[in-house]
Write a structure and sequence with these properties.
Distance between the termini of chain A: 29 Å
Oligomer: homodimer
Strand order of the largest sheet of chain A: 6-5-4-3-9-1-10-14-13
Shape of chain A: globular
Order of helices and strands of chain A: HHEEHEHEHEHEEEHEHEEEEE
Strand content of chain A: 25-35%
Largest sheet of chain A: 9 strands, mixed
Number of helices of chain A: 8
Number of strands of chain A: 14
Protein backbone atom coordinates (compact mmCIF):
# COMPACT_ATOMS: atom_id res chain seq x y z
CA UNK A 1 0.00 0.00 0.00
CA UNK A 2 1.44 3.31 -1.01
CA UNK A 3 -0.50 6.12 0.57
CA UNK A 4 2.36 8.42 -0.39
CA UNK A 5 0.85 8.64 -3.87
CA UNK A 6 0.09 12.21 -4.83
CA UNK A 7 -3.53 13.08 -4.13
CA UNK A 8 -5.66 14.34 -6.97
CA UNK A 9 -6.65 17.99 -6.73
CA UNK A 10 -9.25 18.69 -4.07
CA UNK A 11 -12.76 18.76 -5.48
CA UNK A 12 -14.63 22.02 -5.13
CA UNK A 13 -16.78 21.96 -2.02
CA UNK A 14 -18.54 24.45 0.19
CA UNK A 15 -16.67 25.81 3.17
CA UNK A 16 -18.61 25.02 6.32
CA UNK A 17 -18.47 26.50 9.82
CA UNK A 18 -16.59 23.35 10.80
CA UNK A 19 -13.80 23.98 8.29
CA UNK A 20 -13.10 22.85 4.77
CA UNK A 21 -14.46 19.75 3.17
CA UNK A 22 -11.84 17.01 3.34
CA UNK A 23 -10.88 14.63 0.59
CA UNK A 24 -9.56 11.11 1.08
CA UNK A 25 -8.27 9.38 -2.05
CA UNK A 26 -10.40 6.45 -3.27
CA UNK A 27 -7.39 4.17 -3.57
CA UNK A 28 -6.42 4.78 0.06
CA UNK A 29 -10.00 4.16 1.14
CA UNK A 30 -9.97 0.85 -0.74
CA UNK A 31 -6.95 -0.28 1.24
CA UNK A 32 -8.71 0.42 4.54
CA UNK A 33 -11.84 -1.44 3.43
CA UNK A 34 -10.89 -4.87 4.87
CA UNK A 35 -10.63 -3.24 8.31
CA UNK A 36 -14.03 -1.56 8.27
CA UNK A 37 -17.61 -2.60 9.06
CA UNK A 38 -19.38 -4.46 6.23
CA UNK A 39 -20.91 -2.04 3.74
CA UNK A 40 -24.29 -3.75 3.57
CA UNK A 41 -25.44 -2.95 7.07
CA UNK A 42 -28.96 -4.32 6.69
CA UNK A 43 -27.55 -7.77 6.11
CA UNK A 44 -25.22 -7.68 9.08
CA UNK A 45 -27.76 -6.10 11.38
CA UNK A 46 -29.96 -9.16 11.23
CA UNK A 47 -27.32 -11.38 12.75
CA UNK A 48 -25.25 -9.15 15.01
CA UNK A 49 -26.00 -8.65 18.67
CA UNK A 50 -23.57 -5.80 19.18
CA UNK A 51 -22.15 -3.13 16.88
CA UNK A 52 -18.96 -3.55 14.88
CA UNK A 53 -16.32 -1.77 17.00
CA UNK A 54 -13.37 0.05 15.45
CA UNK A 55 -10.81 1.50 17.83
CA UNK A 56 -8.93 4.39 16.27
CA UNK A 57 -6.63 7.11 17.53
CA UNK A 58 -3.37 8.91 16.77
CA UNK A 59 -0.35 8.84 19.05
CA UNK A 60 3.23 9.98 19.19
CA UNK A 61 6.09 7.45 19.15
CA UNK A 62 5.85 7.42 22.93
CA UNK A 63 2.17 6.51 22.70
CA UNK A 64 0.89 9.90 23.85
CA UNK A 65 -2.38 11.35 22.64
CA UNK A 66 -1.53 14.83 23.92
CA UNK A 67 1.12 16.74 25.87
CA UNK A 68 -1.09 16.83 28.97
CA UNK A 69 -4.72 16.19 29.93
CA UNK A 70 -6.96 18.74 28.26
CA UNK A 71 -4.19 20.07 26.01
CA UNK A 72 -5.19 19.64 22.39
CA UNK A 73 -2.05 18.52 20.57
CA UNK A 74 -1.76 18.38 16.81
CA UNK A 75 0.12 15.16 16.16
CA UNK A 76 -0.73 13.81 12.77
CA UNK A 77 -0.71 15.46 9.38
CA UNK A 78 -3.54 16.59 7.08
CA UNK A 79 -3.83 13.20 5.36
CA UNK A 80 -4.45 11.52 8.72
CA UNK A 81 -7.15 14.05 9.49
CA UNK A 82 -8.84 13.28 6.20
CA UNK A 83 -8.57 9.58 7.01
CA UNK A 84 -10.26 10.09 10.38
CA UNK A 85 -13.17 11.84 8.72
CA UNK A 86 -13.35 9.12 6.07
CA UNK A 87 -13.48 6.50 8.82
CA UNK A 88 -16.30 8.44 10.46
CA UNK A 89 -18.22 8.26 7.19
CA UNK A 90 -18.00 4.46 7.38
CA UNK A 91 -19.48 4.13 10.88
CA UNK A 92 -22.98 4.69 12.18
CA UNK A 93 -21.63 6.22 15.38
CA UNK A 94 -18.47 7.66 16.92
CA UNK A 95 -17.66 7.55 20.62
CA UNK A 96 -15.61 9.82 22.89
CA UNK A 97 -15.32 10.23 26.64
CA UNK A 98 -16.64 13.27 28.44
CA UNK A 99 -13.08 14.44 29.17
CA UNK A 100 -12.44 14.83 25.46
CA UNK A 101 -15.84 16.45 24.93
CA UNK A 102 -15.12 19.06 27.61
CA UNK A 103 -11.48 19.69 26.68
CA UNK A 104 -11.78 19.84 22.90
CA UNK A 105 -15.34 21.05 22.20
CA UNK A 106 -15.19 18.69 19.23
CA UNK A 107 -17.40 18.90 16.14
CA UNK A 108 -17.81 15.12 15.99
CA UNK A 109 -19.16 15.29 12.48
CA UNK A 110 -17.92 14.03 9.18
CA UNK A 111 -16.42 16.45 6.69
CA UNK A 112 -15.33 14.01 4.03
CA UNK A 113 -16.39 14.99 0.52
CA UNK A 114 -17.95 11.61 -0.27
CA UNK A 115 -20.01 11.35 2.92
CA UNK A 116 -23.75 11.13 2.50
CA UNK A 117 -24.60 11.18 6.19
CA UNK A 118 -23.08 12.02 9.56
CA UNK A 119 -22.29 9.55 12.29
CA UNK A 120 -24.12 9.78 15.60
CA UNK A 121 -21.82 11.09 18.33
CA UNK A 122 -21.93 9.08 21.55
CA UNK A 123 -20.42 10.77 24.60
CA UNK A 124 -19.63 8.58 27.62
CA UNK A 125 -20.57 10.79 30.56
CA UNK A 126 -21.65 8.66 33.56
CA UNK A 127 -22.01 11.63 35.93
CA UNK A 128 -23.66 13.95 33.39
CA UNK A 129 -20.75 16.39 33.72
CA UNK A 130 -20.85 17.81 30.22
CA UNK A 131 -22.34 21.31 30.20
CA UNK A 132 -23.44 21.30 26.61
CA UNK A 133 -24.67 24.70 25.44
CA UNK A 134 -26.09 26.08 22.23
CA UNK A 135 -22.58 27.41 21.52
CA UNK A 136 -21.02 23.94 21.66
CA UNK A 137 -19.59 23.07 18.27
CA UNK A 138 -21.48 19.81 17.99
CA UNK A 139 -24.82 21.61 18.40
CA UNK A 140 -23.80 24.47 16.10
CA UNK A 141 -23.15 21.86 13.44
CA UNK A 142 -26.41 20.05 14.17
CA UNK A 143 -28.31 23.30 13.79
CA UNK A 144 -26.54 23.94 10.47
CA UNK A 145 -27.49 20.45 9.25
CA UNK A 146 -23.82 19.48 9.16
CA UNK A 147 -23.80 17.00 11.99
CA UNK A 148 -26.01 15.08 14.40
CA UNK A 149 -26.64 16.13 17.99
CA UNK A 150 -25.02 13.75 20.47
CA UNK A 151 -26.46 10.86 22.42
CA UNK A 152 -25.05 11.34 25.92
CA UNK A 153 -24.66 8.08 27.83
CA UNK A 154 -25.20 8.79 31.51
CA UNK A 155 -25.47 6.54 34.54
CA UNK A 156 -28.91 5.15 35.29
CA UNK A 157 -28.37 6.79 38.69
CA UNK A 158 -27.55 10.22 37.26
CA UNK A 159 -30.04 13.02 37.67
CA UNK A 160 -30.83 14.86 34.48
CA UNK A 161 -33.56 17.49 34.61
CA UNK A 162 -36.55 17.18 32.32
CA UNK A 163 -35.62 20.60 31.00
CA UNK A 164 -32.17 19.38 29.95
CA UNK A 165 -33.64 16.30 28.33
CA UNK A 166 -36.18 18.30 26.34
CA UNK A 167 -33.61 20.90 25.39
CA UNK A 168 -31.23 18.29 23.94
CA UNK A 169 -34.09 16.55 22.14
CA UNK A 170 -34.91 19.77 20.29
CA UNK A 171 -31.53 19.41 18.53
CA UNK A 172 -32.14 15.73 17.81
CA UNK A 173 -29.92 14.46 20.61
CA UNK A 174 -30.82 12.64 23.79
CA UNK A 175 -29.67 11.27 27.11
CA UNK A 176 -29.35 7.49 27.20
CA UNK A 177 -29.36 5.91 30.66
CA UNK A 178 -26.95 3.00 31.05
CA UNK A 179 -26.46 0.65 33.99
CA UNK A 180 -23.37 1.76 35.93
CA UNK A 181 -21.12 0.52 38.72
CA UNK A 182 -18.51 2.02 41.00
CA UNK A 183 -14.95 0.88 40.33
CA UNK A 184 -12.24 0.27 42.94
CA UNK A 185 -11.20 3.92 42.78
CA UNK A 186 -14.73 5.17 43.47
CA UNK A 187 -15.42 6.25 39.88
CA UNK A 188 -18.78 5.59 38.27
CA UNK A 189 -18.19 3.44 35.21
CA UNK A 190 -20.01 1.45 32.56
CA UNK A 191 -19.34 -2.06 31.43
CA UNK A 192 -18.44 -1.96 27.75
CA UNK A 193 -21.00 -4.70 27.04
CA UNK A 194 -23.73 -2.43 28.36
CA UNK A 195 -22.51 0.54 26.35
CA UNK A 196 -22.42 -1.51 23.15
CA UNK A 197 -25.83 -3.02 23.86
CA UNK A 198 -27.22 0.49 24.24
CA UNK A 199 -25.55 1.56 20.99
CA UNK A 200 -27.11 -1.44 19.20
CA UNK A 201 -30.41 -0.64 20.90
CA UNK A 202 -30.34 2.75 19.20
CA UNK A 203 -30.11 1.02 15.83
CA UNK A 204 -26.45 1.92 15.37
CA UNK A 205 -24.66 -1.12 13.96
CA UNK A 206 -21.09 0.19 13.89
CA UNK A 207 -19.10 2.49 16.15
CA UNK A 208 -15.71 4.08 16.00
CA UNK A 209 -14.14 4.61 19.43
CA UNK A 210 -11.92 7.69 19.19
CA UNK A 211 -10.77 8.71 22.66
CA UNK A 212 -9.60 9.97 25.00
CA UNK A 213 -6.94 8.09 26.91
CA UNK A 214 -9.15 6.68 29.63
CA UNK A 215 -11.71 5.34 27.15
CA UNK A 216 -9.02 3.77 24.93
CA UNK A 217 -7.09 2.18 27.79
CA UNK A 218 -10.31 0.84 29.27
CA UNK A 219 -11.33 -0.75 25.97
CA UNK A 220 -7.86 -2.26 25.49
CA UNK A 221 -7.90 -3.85 28.94
CA UNK A 222 -8.69 -7.56 29.03
CA UNK A 223 -11.34 -8.87 28.78
CA UNK A 224 -12.84 -5.73 27.15
CA UNK A 225 -10.50 -5.89 24.18
CA UNK A 226 -12.29 -8.96 22.80
CA UNK A 227 -15.11 -6.54 21.90
CA UNK A 228 -12.87 -4.74 19.41
CA UNK A 229 -13.33 -5.81 15.80
CA UNK A 230 -10.72 -3.58 14.21
CA UNK A 231 -7.83 -1.38 15.33
CA UNK A 232 -6.60 1.56 13.25
CA UNK A 233 -3.79 3.53 14.89
CA UNK A 234 -1.96 6.48 13.38
CA UNK A 235 1.57 7.07 14.66
CA UNK A 236 3.30 10.40 14.17
CA UNK A 237 7.12 10.60 14.09
CA UNK A 238 7.43 12.65 17.27
CA UNK A 239 8.06 12.05 20.95
CA UNK A 240 5.84 14.11 23.26
CA UNK A 241 7.94 13.24 26.29
CA UNK A 242 7.07 12.04 29.76
CA UNK A 243 3.88 13.38 31.30
CA UNK A 244 1.62 13.07 28.28
CA UNK A 245 -1.72 11.30 28.09
CA UNK A 246 -0.53 7.81 27.26
CA UNK A 247 -2.24 4.88 25.58
CA UNK A 248 -1.03 1.79 27.43
CA UNK A 249 -3.47 -0.75 28.83
CA UNK A 250 -3.25 -1.22 32.59
CA UNK A 251 -2.05 -4.63 33.66
CA UNK A 252 -4.69 -6.77 35.26
CA UNK A 253 -3.77 -7.45 38.86
CA UNK A 254 -2.76 -10.99 39.68
CA UNK A 255 -2.26 -11.87 36.03
CA UNK A 256 1.12 -12.38 34.46
CA UNK A 257 2.11 -9.41 32.33
CA UNK A 258 1.68 -10.42 28.71
CA UNK A 259 1.78 -8.39 25.54
CA UNK A 260 -1.48 -7.58 23.79
CA UNK A 261 -0.76 -8.48 20.19
CA UNK A 262 -2.37 -7.46 16.94
CA UNK A 263 -2.84 -9.89 14.10
CA UNK A 264 -3.71 -9.43 10.39
CA UNK A 265 -1.39 -6.47 10.61
CA UNK A 266 -0.71 -3.97 7.84
CA UNK A 267 1.25 -0.71 7.96
CA UNK A 268 0.46 2.17 5.62
CA UNK A 269 2.68 5.25 5.40
CA UNK A 270 0.46 8.32 5.12
CA UNK A 271 2.34 11.58 4.70
CA UNK A 272 4.85 11.74 7.56
CA UNK A 273 2.75 9.36 9.66
CA UNK A 274 2.10 5.64 9.51
CA UNK A 275 -1.28 3.95 9.84
CA UNK A 276 -1.42 0.54 11.49
CA UNK A 277 -4.42 -1.70 10.84
CA UNK A 278 -5.01 -4.95 12.65
CA UNK A 279 -7.18 -7.08 14.86
CA UNK A 280 -6.70 -8.02 18.50
CA UNK A 281 -5.10 -11.46 18.70
CA UNK A 282 -7.45 -13.56 20.80
CA UNK A 283 -5.54 -15.77 23.21
CA UNK B 1 10.05 0.68 0.18
CA UNK B 2 8.67 -2.79 0.31
CA UNK B 3 10.51 -4.89 2.84
CA UNK B 4 7.68 -7.41 2.59
CA UNK B 5 9.37 -8.78 -0.54
CA UNK B 6 10.12 -12.46 -0.20
CA UNK B 7 13.68 -13.05 0.90
CA UNK B 8 15.90 -15.22 -1.28
CA UNK B 9 16.87 -18.52 0.29
CA UNK B 10 19.36 -18.22 3.14
CA UNK B 11 22.93 -18.73 2.00
CA UNK B 12 24.76 -21.65 3.53
CA UNK B 13 26.77 -20.47 6.50
CA UNK B 14 28.42 -21.98 9.54
CA UNK B 15 26.39 -22.23 12.73
CA UNK B 16 28.21 -20.41 15.49
CA UNK B 17 27.94 -20.55 19.28
CA UNK B 18 26.07 -17.26 19.03
CA UNK B 19 23.35 -18.76 16.85
CA UNK B 20 22.75 -18.97 13.14
CA UNK B 21 24.16 -16.64 10.59
CA UNK B 22 21.56 -14.03 9.68
CA UNK B 23 20.70 -12.80 6.24
CA UNK B 24 19.40 -9.32 5.40
CA UNK B 25 18.25 -8.85 1.79
CA UNK B 26 20.43 -6.53 -0.31
CA UNK B 27 17.45 -4.52 -1.53
CA UNK B 28 16.34 -3.83 2.03
CA UNK B 29 19.88 -2.81 2.97
CA UNK B 30 19.95 -0.41 0.03
CA UNK B 31 16.86 1.33 1.35
CA UNK B 32 18.46 1.89 4.74
CA UNK B 33 21.65 3.24 3.19
CA UNK B 34 20.68 6.96 3.27
CA UNK B 35 20.28 6.65 7.04
CA UNK B 36 23.67 5.09 7.74
CA UNK B 37 27.23 6.37 8.23
CA UNK B 38 29.11 7.08 5.00
CA UNK B 39 30.70 3.93 3.58
CA UNK B 40 34.11 5.49 2.93
CA UNK B 41 35.12 5.99 6.53
CA UNK B 42 38.68 7.12 5.81
CA UNK B 43 37.32 10.13 3.97
CA UNK B 44 34.89 11.12 6.67
CA UNK B 45 37.29 10.50 9.51
CA UNK B 46 39.53 13.29 8.35
CA UNK B 47 36.87 15.91 8.84
CA UNK B 48 34.69 14.66 11.70
CA UNK B 49 35.31 15.49 15.32
CA UNK B 50 32.83 13.00 16.72
CA UNK B 51 31.48 9.69 15.50
CA UNK B 52 28.38 9.33 13.38
CA UNK B 53 25.65 8.43 15.89
CA UNK B 54 22.74 6.15 14.99
CA UNK B 55 20.08 5.62 17.63
CA UNK B 56 18.24 2.37 17.13
CA UNK B 57 15.88 0.26 19.21
CA UNK B 58 12.63 -1.71 19.03
CA UNK B 59 9.54 -0.85 21.01
CA UNK B 60 5.94 -1.89 21.43
CA UNK B 61 3.11 0.43 20.39
CA UNK B 62 3.21 1.81 23.93
CA UNK B 63 6.90 2.60 23.51
CA UNK B 64 8.13 -0.13 25.83
CA UNK B 65 11.43 -1.91 25.35
CA UNK B 66 10.50 -4.69 27.76
CA UNK B 67 7.77 -5.79 30.16
CA UNK B 68 9.86 -4.77 33.17
CA UNK B 69 13.46 -3.78 33.96
CA UNK B 70 15.75 -6.75 33.40
CA UNK B 71 13.07 -8.83 31.66
CA UNK B 72 14.20 -9.68 28.17
CA UNK B 73 11.13 -9.32 25.95
CA UNK B 74 10.98 -10.55 22.38
CA UNK B 75 9.15 -7.79 20.57
CA UNK B 76 10.10 -7.72 16.95
CA UNK B 77 10.21 -10.47 14.37
CA UNK B 78 13.10 -12.34 12.73
CA UNK B 79 13.48 -9.80 9.93
CA UNK B 80 13.99 -7.02 12.48
CA UNK B 81 16.65 -9.08 14.21
CA UNK B 82 18.48 -9.53 10.91
CA UNK B 83 18.20 -5.81 10.33
CA UNK B 84 19.75 -5.05 13.72
CA UNK B 85 22.71 -7.27 12.91
CA UNK B 86 23.00 -5.68 9.46
CA UNK B 87 23.05 -2.24 11.10
CA UNK B 88 25.79 -3.44 13.43
CA UNK B 89 27.85 -4.44 10.38
CA UNK B 90 27.63 -0.83 9.20
CA UNK B 91 28.99 0.74 12.40
CA UNK B 92 32.44 0.70 13.95
CA UNK B 93 30.97 0.42 17.43
CA UNK B 94 27.73 -0.38 19.26
CA UNK B 95 26.78 1.02 22.64
CA UNK B 96 24.65 -0.28 25.51
CA UNK B 97 24.23 0.69 29.14
CA UNK B 98 25.45 -1.53 31.95
CA UNK B 99 21.87 -2.36 32.93
CA UNK B 100 21.35 -4.07 29.59
CA UNK B 101 24.75 -5.75 29.78
CA UNK B 102 23.93 -7.22 33.19
CA UNK B 103 20.32 -8.18 32.41
CA UNK B 104 20.77 -9.65 28.95
CA UNK B 105 24.33 -11.02 28.86
CA UNK B 106 24.31 -9.88 25.24
CA UNK B 107 26.62 -11.16 22.51
CA UNK B 108 27.07 -7.67 21.05
CA UNK B 109 28.55 -9.10 17.88
CA UNK B 110 27.43 -9.12 14.28
CA UNK B 111 26.02 -12.28 12.78
CA UNK B 112 25.04 -10.96 9.39
CA UNK B 113 26.22 -13.11 6.49
CA UNK B 114 27.83 -10.23 4.59
CA UNK B 115 29.79 -8.82 7.56
CA UNK B 116 33.55 -8.75 7.22
CA UNK B 117 34.26 -7.48 10.72
CA UNK B 118 32.61 -7.08 14.10
CA UNK B 119 31.73 -3.78 15.76
CA UNK B 120 33.42 -2.82 18.99
CA UNK B 121 31.02 -3.07 21.92
CA UNK B 122 31.03 -0.03 24.22
CA UNK B 123 29.38 -0.52 27.61
CA UNK B 124 28.51 2.59 29.62
CA UNK B 125 29.33 1.59 33.18
CA UNK B 126 30.32 4.64 35.25
CA UNK B 127 30.57 2.73 38.55
CA UNK B 128 32.29 -0.34 37.06
CA UNK B 129 29.35 -2.50 38.14
CA UNK B 130 29.57 -5.11 35.39
CA UNK B 131 31.05 -8.36 36.69
CA UNK B 132 32.27 -9.62 33.37
CA UNK B 133 33.51 -13.21 33.52
CA UNK B 134 35.03 -15.63 31.08
CA UNK B 135 31.56 -17.17 30.78
CA UNK B 136 30.02 -13.88 29.61
CA UNK B 137 28.71 -14.29 26.07
CA UNK B 138 30.63 -11.33 24.71
CA UNK B 139 33.95 -12.85 25.87
CA UNK B 140 33.00 -16.34 24.69
CA UNK B 141 32.46 -14.86 21.26
CA UNK B 142 35.70 -12.87 21.42
CA UNK B 143 37.61 -16.03 22.28
CA UNK B 144 35.97 -17.83 19.36
CA UNK B 145 36.96 -15.00 17.01
CA UNK B 146 33.30 -14.17 16.45
CA UNK B 147 33.20 -10.83 18.20
CA UNK B 148 35.33 -8.15 19.83
CA UNK B 149 35.83 -7.87 23.58
CA UNK B 150 34.12 -4.77 24.98
CA UNK B 151 35.51 -1.37 25.83
CA UNK B 152 33.98 -0.57 29.22
CA UNK B 153 33.52 3.16 29.81
CA UNK B 154 33.94 3.83 33.53
CA UNK B 155 34.12 7.01 35.55
CA UNK B 156 37.55 8.59 35.89
CA UNK B 157 36.86 8.29 39.63
CA UNK B 158 36.07 4.56 39.48
CA UNK B 159 38.52 2.10 40.95
CA UNK B 160 39.42 -0.75 38.67
CA UNK B 161 42.14 -3.14 39.81
CA UNK B 162 45.24 -3.64 37.70
CA UNK B 163 44.33 -7.32 37.64
CA UNK B 164 40.90 -6.58 36.10
CA UNK B 165 42.44 -4.27 33.55
CA UNK B 166 45.04 -6.82 32.50
CA UNK B 167 42.47 -9.61 32.45
CA UNK B 168 40.17 -7.72 30.09
CA UNK B 169 43.09 -6.72 27.88
CA UNK B 170 43.96 -10.37 27.34
CA UNK B 171 40.66 -10.69 25.43
CA UNK B 172 41.33 -7.50 23.47
CA UNK B 173 39.01 -5.34 25.55
CA UNK B 174 39.79 -2.49 27.91
CA UNK B 175 38.53 -0.04 30.48
CA UNK B 176 38.24 3.53 29.20
CA UNK B 177 38.15 6.23 31.86
CA UNK B 178 35.75 9.07 31.08
CA UNK B 179 35.15 12.31 32.98
CA UNK B 180 31.99 11.95 35.07
CA UNK B 181 29.65 14.09 37.14
CA UNK B 182 26.96 13.49 39.71
CA UNK B 183 23.43 14.29 38.56
CA UNK B 184 20.63 15.77 40.67
CA UNK B 185 19.59 12.30 41.80
CA UNK B 186 23.09 11.40 43.03
CA UNK B 187 23.89 9.11 40.08
CA UNK B 188 27.31 9.19 38.46
CA UNK B 189 26.84 10.10 34.81
CA UNK B 190 28.77 11.01 31.69
CA UNK B 191 28.16 13.88 29.34
CA UNK B 192 27.40 12.45 25.91
CA UNK B 193 29.98 14.78 24.37
CA UNK B 194 32.65 13.16 26.53
CA UNK B 195 31.48 9.65 25.65
CA UNK B 196 31.53 10.41 21.94
CA UNK B 197 34.92 12.11 22.17
CA UNK B 198 36.29 8.97 23.83
CA UNK B 199 34.73 6.80 21.12
CA UNK B 200 36.35 8.96 18.44
CA UNK B 201 39.59 8.88 20.43
CA UNK B 202 39.56 5.09 20.04
CA UNK B 203 39.47 5.50 16.28
CA UNK B 204 35.81 4.47 16.04
CA UNK B 205 34.08 6.78 13.60
CA UNK B 206 30.52 5.51 13.85
CA UNK B 207 28.44 4.16 16.71
CA UNK B 208 25.03 2.59 17.02
CA UNK B 209 23.35 3.32 20.36
CA UNK B 210 21.10 0.35 21.15
CA UNK B 211 19.83 0.66 24.71
CA UNK B 212 18.56 0.30 27.30
CA UNK B 213 15.85 2.69 28.34
CA UNK B 214 17.98 5.01 30.44
CA UNK B 215 20.62 5.39 27.73
CA UNK B 216 18.04 6.04 25.01
CA UNK B 217 16.01 8.54 27.03
CA UNK B 218 19.19 10.33 28.05
CA UNK B 219 20.33 10.65 24.44
CA UNK B 220 16.88 11.85 23.33
CA UNK B 221 16.80 14.58 25.99
CA UNK B 222 17.63 18.07 24.76
CA UNK B 223 20.31 19.23 24.15
CA UNK B 224 21.83 15.73 23.81
CA UNK B 225 19.60 14.80 20.90
CA UNK B 226 21.46 17.18 18.59
CA UNK B 227 24.30 14.63 18.71
CA UNK B 228 22.12 12.04 16.94
CA UNK B 229 22.73 11.74 13.20
CA UNK B 230 20.17 9.08 12.42
CA UNK B 231 17.22 7.40 14.15
CA UNK B 232 16.04 3.90 13.23
CA UNK B 233 13.16 2.64 15.35
CA UNK B 234 11.36 -0.67 14.95
CA UNK B 235 7.79 -0.78 16.21
CA UNK B 236 6.06 -4.08 16.90
CA UNK B 237 2.23 -4.33 16.76
CA UNK B 238 1.80 -5.10 20.47
CA UNK B 239 1.05 -3.24 23.65
CA UNK B 240 3.17 -4.31 26.61
CA UNK B 241 0.97 -2.42 29.05
CA UNK B 242 1.72 -0.05 31.90
CA UNK B 243 4.85 -0.71 33.92
CA UNK B 244 7.20 -1.51 31.07
CA UNK B 245 10.57 0.10 30.39
CA UNK B 246 9.42 3.06 28.33
CA UNK B 247 11.22 5.20 25.77
CA UNK B 248 9.97 8.73 26.35
CA UNK B 249 12.36 11.61 26.84
CA UNK B 250 12.02 13.39 30.18
CA UNK B 251 10.80 16.95 29.90
CA UNK B 252 13.40 19.55 30.72
CA UNK B 253 12.35 21.46 33.81
CA UNK B 254 11.33 25.05 33.26
CA UNK B 255 10.97 24.57 29.53
CA UNK B 256 7.66 24.47 27.74
CA UNK B 257 6.72 20.93 26.78
CA UNK B 258 7.30 20.58 23.07
CA UNK B 259 7.30 17.53 20.84
CA UNK B 260 10.62 16.18 19.62
CA UNK B 261 10.03 15.74 15.90
CA UNK B 262 11.75 13.63 13.30
CA UNK B 263 12.34 14.90 9.80
CA UNK B 264 13.33 13.14 6.53
CA UNK B 265 10.98 10.44 7.70
CA UNK B 266 10.38 7.12 6.01
CA UNK B 267 8.40 4.08 7.20
CA UNK B 268 9.27 0.57 6.08
CA UNK B 269 7.03 -2.40 6.87
CA UNK B 270 9.24 -5.35 7.82
CA UNK B 271 7.37 -8.56 8.52
CA UNK B 272 4.74 -7.70 11.14
CA UNK B 273 6.78 -4.71 12.34
CA UNK B 274 7.46 -1.29 10.89
CA UNK B 275 10.84 0.43 10.73
CA UNK B 276 10.93 4.20 11.05
CA UNK B 277 13.97 6.08 9.74
CA UNK B 278 14.52 9.77 10.29
CA UNK B 279 16.62 12.56 11.68
CA UNK B 280 16.03 14.73 14.70
CA UNK B 281 14.44 18.01 13.60
CA UNK B 282 16.74 20.74 14.90
CA UNK B 283 14.77 23.65 16.28
Amino acid sequence: MDLHAASPALPAGPTTPSGDVLYFPTEDAARLEPHLPPLSSSQSQQTQTRPFVTLTFATSLDSSLSLAPGVRTVLSGPQSKAMTHYLRSRHAAILVGVGTAIADDPGLNCRISSATSNPRAIVIDPLARWSLTEESKVLQLAKAGQGLAPFIFVSDAAEVSLESKEWLQRFGGKYVFVKSFMDGGGSVRFHWEDVLAAVQGEGLDSIMVEGGGQIINSLLTPPNNRLIDSVIVTIAPTWLGQGGVVVSPPRVEGEKAAPLRLTDVSWHPLGEDVVLCGKILKI
